[in-house]
Amino acid sequence: MSKPVVAIVGRPNVGKSTIFNRMAGERLAIVEDVPGVTRDRVYSKAEWVNQEFNIIDTGGIDVGGGSLFQQMRHQAEIALEEADVIVFLVNGRDGVTGADEEVASLLFRTDKPVVVGVNKIDNLEMQMDIYDFYRLGFGEVYPVSGSHGLGLGDMLDAVVRQFPAVEGDDYEEDTIRMAVIGRPNVGKSSLVNAVLGEERVIVSDMPGTTRDAVDTVFERDGQEYAVMDTAGMRKRGKVYENTEKYSVMRALRAIERSDVVLMVIDGEEGILEQDKKIAGYAEDAGRAIVMVVNKWDAVEKDDKTMSRFTDDIREGFQFLPYAPVLFLSAVTKQRMQHLLPVVKEAADNHNLRVPTNVLNDVIVDAVIMNPTPTDGVRRLRINYATQVAVGPPTIVLFVNDPDLLHFSYHRYLENRLREAFHFEGTPIKIIARKKS
Ligand code: GDP
Ligand code: GDP
């Protein structure tokens, strides 16, 4: 998974490049007392308290012509696009300028965390000069001196604190990490409790790598599972903002950390638009997905209810034809016993490795059954297939021209692979590459 990205933004000459070089940990002798000749690199790796990340010096990005303001704006926009955390650098000697306010107004439009660094605070006497910058409206401001290397530690602590948690938890590789997601009140917490009620809990309330989740680790039939409870946090009265945006962000982080996503739907209410949006994130992230229709005890049923609901799910989540659907009740525990076996199977499929020769046999057979498409002149030729990754299984096809692999044939091949290898519960990626 990719490292967090930190972008440094600010008007010209506040010291972006100087700070960048400090953060890059290299005292490259590039900073001279001549504005504009200070940089030779724009991206660098950096590390702080064992956290690796990438930094971008947006001031060094050539955004073409335009006025200084236009350039600054483009640079800030790139930062907003690319970065996980933005360092907004200002010059402590100048106080807040109109150009600073211009940058601030751009940064206000993002949800991304902004850390204000007040540069050129070269000695303690100058500390008073930083207070003006609180009115930029980004909370705490951090005095630094790029040329003297002062204050950077505190600023970087603040930056690192804002990193989204992605990877780096301490679980064994074969621990299955489950994220339970869904709209408020569909029964996520009840489901987590129902699962844990039946299992031998190894660690409870293990702090996750995010501020937003608490993990519990348990074992079933020799398999270790970690369940991330994002909803339970709120019930313990910890930090929680009851906005949709915030809960979506928490769901996203849980998804990023998981192997299998349990997408919980309220059986009484049916499928809502918000359910689709949340499931879409899990799909984008390439996670295995199990659909859980909860509160099945409260649904009035006849012998067709389940198949009708399944049809609704297939219709509503057309992008997830491979996700198994489970109907259960977290409260009465009805059908709960099916959950973990389905999760385990989805996780196994997510990590399935297909032998290359068998994979190529399936592709060759598929092509015989249904010849590859042409563009009227040339026909798609698949020379060779190989699996390059798991989690999700990712298959590269070496072809004469990737543009000839149209959507419908892509879909056809995916279906054949699913029939052959039983990838239930997991997305699979098929990538066409030009044979070199
Ligand atoms: P950028 O254009 O915003 O990237 O700014 P630079 O890093 O090129 O710095 C602009 C000028 O400010 C250069 O002359 C630097 O030597 C100077 N400068 C950078 N950081 C500091 C600092 O902490 N204190 C002082 N006094 N000057 C600095
Ligand atoms: P969360 O916000 O998604 O974590 O949902 P909760 O677990 O807090 O449940 C919301 C409400 O739905 C609570 O009143 C639960 O008692 C109820 N609920 C949860 N699971 C079930 C279920 O399986 N059947 C029924 N009838 N109610 C349930």
Question: Your description of this structure?
Answer:
GTP 1 binds at residues 10-17, 57-61, 119-122. This is GTPase Der. It holds the Pfam family MMR_HSR1. It is a single chain. The protein has 436 residues and is α/β, with parallel strands linked by helices. The chain contains twelve helices and 16 strands. It has a seven-stranded mixed sheet with strand order 8-9-10-7-11-12-13, with helices on both faces. A hairpin with a 2-residue loop joins strand 9 and strand 10 (223-229).
Lay out the secondary structure.
Layout: E1 5-9, H1 16-23, E2 43-48, E3 51-57, H2 68-82, E4 85-91, H3 98-107, E5 114-119, E6 141-143, H4 152-161, E7 176-181, H5 188-197, E8 200-207, E9 214-220, E10 223-229, H6 230-235, H7 244-257, E11 260-266, H8 273-284, E12 288-294, H9 305-316, E13 325-327, H10 339-350, H11 356-369, E14 382-389, E15 394-399, H12 407-421, E16 429-434
Parallel strand pairs: 1-3, 1-4, 4-5, 5-6, 7-10, 7-11, 11-12, 12-13, 15-16
Antiparallel strand pairs: 2-3, 8-9, 9-10, 14-15
Helix pairs in contact: 2-3, 11-12
One guanosine-5'-diphosphate is lined by residues 10, 12-18, 31, 33, 35, 38, 59, 119-120, 122, 145-148.
Short description:
The chain is an alpha/beta fold.
**Strand order in the largest sheet:** 8-9-10-7-11-12-13
Structure class: alpha/beta
From the structure provided, what is the oligomeric state, counting identical versus distinct chains?
single chain
What's the rounded overall pLDDT mean? 84
What form results from the Cα inertia axes?
A: globular
Strand-residue proportion: 15-25%
> Major sheet: size, sense and barrel closure?
7 strands, mixed
Report the radius of gyration as a whole number of Å.
Answer: 26 Å
Which stretches are poorly predicted, pLDDT < 50 over at least 5 residues? 27-39, 207-212, 232-246
* Number of E-type strands: 16
Order of helices and strands: EHEEHEHEEHEHEEEHHEHEHEHHEEHE
Each distinct ligand: guanosine-5'-diphosphate
User: Helix fraction?
Assistant: 25-40%
Count of DSSP-assigned helices: 12
Q: Report the span from N to C terminus.
A: 27 Å
